[in-house]
Amino acid sequence: MDAVTSVLLSAVIILLSYGFYLLRKHLRFFADLNIPHIPASFDLIDKTTHPAKQFQKWYRQFKGQHPLAGILMVIKPIAIPLDLELIKCILVKDFQYFQNRGMYYNEKDDPLSAHLFSLEGAKWRNLRSKISPTFTSGKMKMMYPTMVAAGNQFREYLNEKATLESEFEMRDLLARFTTDIIGTCAFGIECNSMQEPNSKFREMSRKHFETRRNDLKDLFKMTFPNFARFLGITEILPDVSEFFMNVVKSTIEYRVKNKVSRNDFMDLCIGMLEGQSPGSDQLTINEIAAQAYVFFIAGFETSSTTMTWALYELSRNLDIQEKGRKCVQETLEKHNGVMSYEAIMEMTYIDQIINETLRLYPPVPLHFRVATKDYHVPNTDTVLPAGTATMIPVYAIHRDEEIFPEPEKFDPNRFCPEEVSKRHPYAWTPFGEGPRICIGVRFGMMQARIGLVLLLNNFRFSPGPNSSGEMEFVTHNFILTPKQGLWLKVEKI
Predict the structure, then answer these.
(1) 441-458 vs 318-334: helix axis angle to the nearest 10?
(2) Using the 8-state DSSP alphabet, how is residue 385 labeled?
(3) 73: which DSSP letter?
(4) Beta strand segments in 163-231, E
(5) Rounded to an integer, what distance in angstroms lies between the CA atom of residue 84 and that of residue 415?
(6) pLDDT tens for residues 143-168?
(7) Which of 461, 287, 298, 411 is nearest to 364 (CA)?
(8) Cβ atoms 395, 362 nearer than 8 A
């Protein structure tokens, strides 16, 4: 054996030994930390079950044994916080250790993926402070008439169709409604999805959520994000990315050239566009496009699915539906029949209906955080190493019978002030909490309020011939969506 061959063989042996050492270290990750866990397995994830339900199973299996449990997705360790005080620490008290979500993005090859939801560190903090003014209560008040106008188009469309048909698939109609609102508020574009269900915005939003993802590619991005970026792996479908980038560019160009102002999200971004105004809050065209993209994608789907699940439960609980309708009608009567911003904010029972819907069907059923430095878990001897991913099982906690008695029962009274005060403040976190709480929570809640108020004031909903009894979740969509759609009988009032 010559010297070169000997050196190469030695190098291969060293690399294999090091690889074996790393693999063994990963496989023993939770055992070495004395954290109860599920052993590594290639079939850990059951593709026939939504991840929310799988995490619910593990939550129930390990709750009470330790503040954390663990799973190994092939070789990637995932810590599952089980204790509400620990969750409070992760989201708020010790946020400096868990400020990143660990979501994959590739700013160079896939600029729309570098949005507020996925960005990390100083880049996220700077962008959050720039974008936050869009979602103040004052801005909501300014956008409110635009949102109501889209709501009235939805009401008129359903009113017209209800004279010809008695049963509707409400999930698609609600998605078209929220598409119109977000298209107008984020881009200043009249999508007109009610009359044109196959509009380009609807086509692209459906493509984003309904295209099946490559599990191996997703696992690779999650496990080796830096290497994935080096290889130029992208997150967003190319034609979806191209569509939204072109829409943003053309919208900005038109508004700047014609001095158009609409007091909306795009106006705020144009005010920060590089070259448009001096100061440190400037944004590039790619940064603006990324935020507009996530505003649209996250905003239309989460609000439409929340309203879908609300109508599903209201159609099965007619007494609650009538109580909600009475709340709407009595409040409107106090305001001379005008659905003003002030009137809709007074409808507290509608908020309780929405909150209870978000408890049973949180659109985002898991919150992601990554430890940016070694973290000593309070009241234990456990130290989570920097880089450890955590997934907070929101869906499982929301259906914990020790926190919410009769958890499968739909009961908006759980969210009257006296009941809320009895619970741990982190028992209900559909939007997250702390510095990384959903920035669009006010906008999303306002969409849901407007939609439900208009629907309850004008229509009754009940199960029809095509309605499903127990609903199943679409397993390949992370957001909780009904597999069968939502067919309901609709009667005009």
Answers:
(1) 100
(2) P
(3) E
(4) 167-169
(5) 18
(6) 898 889 999 999 999 999 888 888 99
(7) 298
(8) yes
